[in-house]
Automatic annotation (TrEMBL):
This is Sodium-coupled multidrug efflux MATE transporter VmrA. The keyword Transmembrane helix applies. The keyword Cell membrane applies. Coiled coil: none annotated. Keywords: Cell membrane, Membrane, Transmembrane, Transmembrane helix.
Length: 121
């Protein structure tokens, strides 16, 4: 039993770490290309946008991980209907939240930029 738990742990951990490394590499390469071909203004734009993007990703991950954990608990209890209900609730929550976040960002984009201390263009 113990061996299978460790095996399962590494089965899911290694792809997750690999995905994080690829994402980090993507960010570095993106910065190189934008810095080289667009310049300082392009890099400034990325740096101003990243906190907002990171917040959106964080909210999505929070709901996704929470939904996944609760779904797994329900499946472990052999409650397939409960698992489907949790999954449906998580997806509907994200679908309801997306337009709200998009609307807030649309109307307060300039304020978010100003709150970060950005000026100029």
């Amino acid at each position: 039993m113990q061996n299978s738990i460790y095996k399962q742990f590494w089965k899911y951990t290694i792809p997750t770490v690999a995905a994080m490394l690829v994402n980090g590499l993507y960010q570095v390469v993106d910065g190189i290309f934008i810095g080289r071909y667009v310049g300082a203004d392009g890099l400034a734009g990325i740096n101003v946008a990243w906190p907002v993007i990171g917040s959106i990703l964080g909210i999505g991950m929070m709901v996704g991980v929470g939904t996944g954990a609760l779904t797994s608990i329900k499946q472990g209890e052999q409650d397939q209907q409960g698992a489907k209900r949790v999954l449906t609730t998580g997806l509907l929550f994200l679908l309801a939240l997306m337009p709200i976040v998009a609307t807030i960002l649309f109307f307060f984009a300039d304020d978010f930029i100003r709150w970060q201390g950005a000026q100029g263009r």
